[in-house]
Amino acid sequence: MIPLNWYLVLGAALFLLGMLGFFLKRNVISLLLSVEIMLNAVNLTFVAFSSHNGQISGQIFVFFVLVVAAAEAAVGLALVIAMFRNRETLNVDRSNLLKW
Amino acid sequence: MIEYLTSRDFLILFAKMIVIFGGVMGALAYATLLERRLMAFVQMRPGPNRVGPFGLLQPIADGLKFLFKEQTVPGNANVFLYYAAPILSMIPALLSFSVIPFGPDLKIADINVSLLLIFAITSLGVYGIVLGGWASNSKYPLMGAMRSSAQMLSYELSLTLSVVGVLMIANTLSLTNLVQSQQGTWFGFIPRWNVFLQPVGFIVYFLSGIAETNRLPFDLAESEQELVAGWHTEYSGMKFAMFFLAEYANMVTVSALAAIMFLGGWNGPMFGPWWLQMALPTIWFVSKIVVFLFIYMLVRATIPRIRYDQLMHFGWKVLLPLALANILVTSFIVAIL
Amino acid sequence: MIELLFLLFAAVAVGSAINVLVQKHVLYSSLSLIVLLTAISALFILLQAEFLAVINVIVYAGAIMVLFVFVIMLLNLPADEDGADRLRWLKLIGIPMGLFLLLMVARTVWRVEGTAAAPDLAGTPQAIGASLFTDYLLPFELTSLLILIALMGAVVFAKKEL
């Protein structure tokens, strides 16, 4: 059995990589992909805890995270399509009309 | 680990892998010959019969031809994805055979979620088509790839939902247990196949399977009359052969799953001496797969292609509600009985 | 032996996550994300959550990522331009700070242990189903409502004219 802390460190590393991508990328689809990386890291942590503590509710929660990720990806991509149709670029720095 | 690799269990497993993999690859090669002969007989012409007796050496001649063709890459194409797409199409198609039980002992792996694993692997097969169409940098493959990805996604839903009725009856996700739950007979002569308990599920599953493997009447992605050759227009030589074999492997996987879930798998009347009885389950299973392959090829030879909007309408508004209604009715009956 | 498998899949996961961030063309990033998802599914299988591993591949890698790839192809996005990178200094400072944050988190997390006598939990469909449809029925129904709302929202947003 692999110790729990190995999985937690791996989950933390993946979450951090997703966070770095979210802060440092400008393409909207790259931002969505970074969010997916973060959600996967969280899934891994949930399942690791569920398996090491013997409770099934960690895996149940992963189901809900998966469902929410699917819904968010679908709506996010629809927004990306709408954004691309209106301004021909997917750079978030260009969507700054609300800045004063 | 070295002592495992030289142990008797691993050597038996390795022998099974070679038998199953070799058998499957040989079957795929000869399925191409079967298709050409069958379609030719439907169209009242002889088909390939020159190369060997009854054309039996034709697949070997085809393989040699594919090997010796020139490897071209279209200009401005995405070279990495262009080379990766046939591999991405071939790997999921062949990986499904690792969990299909060809007999009571002839299986490579026995996991308790093997049915879902096959669905997961076939859902990864979309990427080979989509990336192959994108990487070719040409309009016909791109259109074929877009149509195909939408079609495969839509019909995956009715594919997975149509087997839920069978799973409720058999109470297991493992393919070996599904086969074992169909042993025996009613009244002594009607076998306990799930096709008698779930006829709607069977029809929905098979139609979704035909759509998943991009075969006529659902082969919008590859329609020869409209899109030259669809997503594999720019592929030639061994890469095209890999796409070709992947399509036949998907067909065999769908047929094998239909045989396992609805037609009893390797169950069948046992007779004969002991050495025949050892091979008989595999013979029954393979003959059931061949029955489905015949149906596939006869459907290809006779039924016209349906239009894209008709295809989407059929998948979402006919097959999906049918599969859901099947689940509803089956769950009522299973709960009451 | 199992540690070797864990290290292999962890290396693949971290490598593909880094590749998602490093690639210029967003299609290659999506393909690296698919590799990440399969590596995470393999790690789920190591944790005896085989049902969840397969569901991860079917839903995430097989449907959501196809949606991503489809949208990227539909919009025909070019690779990011190589011009002056306005976030150059942010990246130069941010990445080492991020690694420092990881070091701090890992130091804290390293002390966590599972409960001493953990029962052997199998992530079989029976176990998940028994819990999902009895204790967690309300969140289950709510998430199905959420998906319905997301479906309607996505259709409305992607229309050419509202």
Sum up the structure in keywords.
heterotrimer; B: 337 residues; mainly alpha; two-stranded antiparallel ribbon; 2 strands; 67% helix; C: 162 residues; Four Helix Bundle (Hemerythrin (Met), subunit A); 2 domains; globular
Query: Count of helical segments of chain B?
Result: 14
Q: Main sheet of chain A?
A: none
- Subunit arrangement of the protein: heterotrimer
Largest chain interface and its two residue counts? Answer: A-C, 70 and 83 residues
- Major sheet of chain B: 2 strands, antiparallel
Tally of discrete structural domains of chain A? 1
Query: What order do the SSEs of chain A take from the amino end to the carboxyl end, as H and E?
Result: HHH
- Helix and strand content put the structural class of chain A at mainly alpha
The N- and C-terminal alpha carbons of chain A lie at a distance of 56 Å
Name of the top-level CATH class of chain A:
Mainly Alpha
Number of strands of chain B: 2
Q: Beta-sheet strand percentage of chain A?
A: under 5%
Query: Gyration radius of chain B, to the nearest Å?
Result: 21 Å
Overall pLDDT confidence of chain A: 90
Unreliable segments of 5+ consecutive residues of chain B: none
Q: Percent helix among the residues of chain B?
A: 55-70%
Please give a structural write-up.
- The complex is a heterotrimer of chains A (100), B (337) and C (162).
- Chain A has helices at 4-24, 28-53, 57-87.
- With 100 residues, chain A is mainly α.
- Chain A has one domain (4-91): Helix Hairpins.
- In chain A, helix 1 (4-24) packs antiparallel against helix 2 (28-53) and helix 2 packs antiparallel against helix 3 (57-87).
- The radius of gyration of chain B is 21 Å and the shape is globular.
- In chain B, a hairpin with a 3-residue loop joins strand 1 and strand 2 (190-191).
- Chain B has 14 helices and 2 strands, in the order αααααααααββααααα.
- The longest helix of chain B is centred in the first third of the chain and has 35 residues, at 8-42.
- In chain B, helix 8 (164-170) packs parallel to helix 14 (308-336).
- Chain B has one domain.
- Chain B has a two-stranded antiparallel sheet.
- Chain B is an all-alpha fold and 337 residues long.
- With 162 residues, chain C is mainly alpha-helical.
- Helices cover 73% and strands 0% of the residues of chain C.
- Chain C has helices spanning 2-22, 26-46, 50-75, 88-109, 125-132, 137-157.
- In chain C, helix 1 packs antiparallel against helix 2 (26-46) and helix 2 (26-46) runs antiparallel to helix 3.
- The longest helix of chain C is centred in the middle third of the chain and has 26 residues, at 50-75.
- Chains in contact: A-C, B-C.
- At the A-C interface, helix 1, helix 2 and helix 3 of A face helix 1, helix 2, helix 3, helix 4 and helix 5 of C.
